[in-house]
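for the writeup, i need someone to sanity check this before i put it in the appendix. the sequnce is what the collaborator sent (i think, or maybe the updated version? ugh). structure was predicted straight from it, no edits. if anything looks off just tell me and ill rerun, i have time this weekend
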Amino acid sequence: MPVVPTSISDRARQIYEYGLAHGTDPTHFSIIGDCQNVSSYFLSVFDKPGKFSLGTQYAYLQPTIDYYQGSFSRKSLAVKGGFNAAAVLSPFRSDPKSCNPNESPLDCELRKWKPSIVIVSMETWWSEKPATEYDKYMRKVLDRIIATGALPIIATKADNLEGNNVINATVAQIAYEYQIPMWNFWAAVHPLTNHGLSPDGFHLTFARNFFDDPQRMKSAWPWRNLTALQTLDVVRNALTEVK
């Protein structure tokens, strides 16, 4: 499957348009996930001119950067180290200063930011739990997002800590069934040395986000930010095209 989706389904468009009719903001996206999605590493650079370089090859992405300004560096209320698909649904894991009583981190983020697009990237999981549990909780996360009219973009992960790539297979199956865009991050970093992973087999190799620097592009983090941006670009253009 491709790294970046090549199109969106009619179902995805219906979700998005329903959301706009019920108050989602077309210029807002949110991120749901664990430590590999914290704003200090993931996407926030695109709100900081001079801290990244698209080069000529990726200059076409600038309009999408302009379109979503403010979302890139926003600290999501549903992103935290150790979060998994179950944790983002638990009110016990919410920020009490920002969220209502009995409100999950996911619901809190959706209410406060009113995103039209939600990137769902869940790398962390209980290693002793079967993939069926991941599947169950991920579907609950997606159902809740879709109920608000936001369109989820679900992501595969770089690591294979479970040993048989069953989590990524589950993600792909869910994306197919829900007819939502999938950002196949696994495919983006698979060609890199050690698949872009640090010696612990989980954390990504780091370099700054200068996409026209071949040396830096040997590390995983520039590819994570670039391909996430490319995915947003494809989805945005597909959703806003005049039909």
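The helical segments are 10-21, 62-67, 105-113, 131-147, 166-178, 185-189, 220-240. The chain has one domain: 10-237.
thx in advance!!
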